[in-house]
Specification:
Elements: H1 3-18, E1 31-34, E2 40-45, H2 51-58, H3 69-84, E3 94-99, E4 117-119
Antiparallel strand pairs: 1-2, 2-3, 3-4
Length: 121
């Protein structure tokens, strides 16, 4: 084994030590909430591959001082970065999206659009 291969193995071992242990939380069950407008809002756990899109949506708020949007968005941005870089333990990232109300949309979670915002409970 070359010195470079040995270094890569040691780096991978160190990375596994830095990651927090998982406690095996169950997945967040998607929920459909009826809005007063007659639309349904889906709240579901965001997938890891959706987090970069959510980060881009949050960026404009980082410079918006009104009502502490800058502080809240900075904290949310940091939490999302921590999740995708495996520096937080068992965190839920949920998103919400709405669509026109119909009998199928209230139960079929897979047909709902991708979330445009995220919250961390």
């Amino acid at each position: 084994m070359s010195a470079l291969d040995k270094w890569k193995v040691e780096l991978n071992e160190r990375e596994m030590q830095l990651r927090p242990p998982t406690i095996g939380m169950k997945r967040y069950e998607p929920k459909v909430i009826p809005l007063t407008t007659g639309e349904d809002m889906l709240v579901r756990e965001a997938r890891d591959e959706e987090i970069p899109m959510v980060l881009e949506a949050i960026k404009p708020l980082l410079d918006h001082e009104k009502d502490f949007y800058d502080i809240v968005s900075a904290r949310l941005y940091a939490e999302l970065l921590g999740k995708i870089r495996y520096r937080v333990q068992d965190e839920y990232v949920s998103g919400a999206s709405s669509t026109a109300s119909s009998p199928e949309s209230s139960t079929d979670v897979s047909s709902m659009p991708t979330p445009v915002s995220a919250t961390i409970p």
